[in-house]
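Batch queue: ligand-bound targets. Current item pairs a single chain with NAP. No template structures supplied; prediction is de novo from sequence plus SMILES. Inputs echoed for audit trail.
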Amino acid sequence: MKILLSENPGGPERLTLATRPQPEPGPGEIRISVRCVGINYPDTLIIEDRYQFRPERPFAPGAELCGVVETLGDGVTGFAPGDRVMALTVWGALAEKVCVPAAQCHPVPDAVSDADAASLQMTYGTALHALEERGGLRPGETVVVLGAAGGVGMATVELAKLLGARVVAAASSAEKCAAARACGSDATVIYPRGPLDRTAQKAFAGALREAIGPEGADIVVDIVGGDYSEPALRCMGFGGRFLIVGFPAGIARIPANLPLLKSCDIRGVFWGAAVERAPEANRRAMARLLELCAEGKIRPRIHATYPLTEGARAIAALNERTVMGKVLVTV
Ligand SMILES: NC(=O)c1ccc[n+]([C@@H]2O[C@H](COP(=O)([O-])OP(=O)(O)OC[C@H]3O[C@@H](n4cnc5c(N)ncnc54)[C@H](OP(=O)(O)O)[C@@H]3O)[C@@H](O)[C@H]2O)c1
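Prediction returned. Tokens below.
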């Protein structure tokens, strides 16, 4: 079978397409014939050894997939060969075949396409966990989303609207803001591509304040980090929740007086750890997302699709900061 391997740490250009024997499922595992893989920012980090997890090399990147069940390992019940499933692999999905613990597989209803199923887990899973469990979002609250046109960003805009929030979307271009508006955001703010000096940070905070209104933000979902975090923190409302989701623009240093002045919380969001610690809750969340998708209430926006032979280009696209929505690889 074909597999896209990381044999040495480095950027996507260092990945190699190799041929390897197909894997055999161990006890409790399912071998899946992969159809579609969702690419996520963590794929750019894991191949450079900059992610929370450092798999032993060689390994294939690719955290989530949709495919068809081929073979069941000992003890697997509830699935049959031919079933369409989506699965969370964290790494390993960019291959023709993968073996995944059955506990990490979810049956996909007919109404959900392969592309949608491959797009749902990491972005919408993170967004739902951030907004509901970490953010405690209540209908009518104002949610600010930084990096609103990325994969997690668009999912957050869509879900926040669905949960009854007023959404202010911020992104680095007019085109990206238009994409966030198409996902339902009520207001948008364009920020410069950075780095931001003090004047640019003040201007960004001012534009955000204007879009948010006098009460300040109830929730900020910070998917960008770097110089963008502090201006957003300065726009919090009393009792607000500032959610740290990711930092493609760098890890922000936050002045400790700000949460005091705003009487707000800064909360970390680590969806992968939540999945591991509360697998049943994640199973319910995935079933809910599949149902919302089948009903047409959420709709992953696909920015581009590449074949497995060009999987490295799919990962490189996220580094270029031009993607709006989701990048996929078809196998
Ligand atoms: N905490 C968790 O549990 C969790 C789970 C999944 C993902 N994440 C993290 O969430 C973030 C977003 O992931 P994603 O898959 O949605 O990625 P994505 O689609 O590439 O979105 C990232 C966004 O970050 C912004 N950005 C700012 N500086 C950037 C830079 N130097 N390079 C690339 N993008 C930059 C871009 O928006 P603008 O150009 O508009 O600024 C881009 O849309 C990542 O940091 C990822 O590691 C966290």
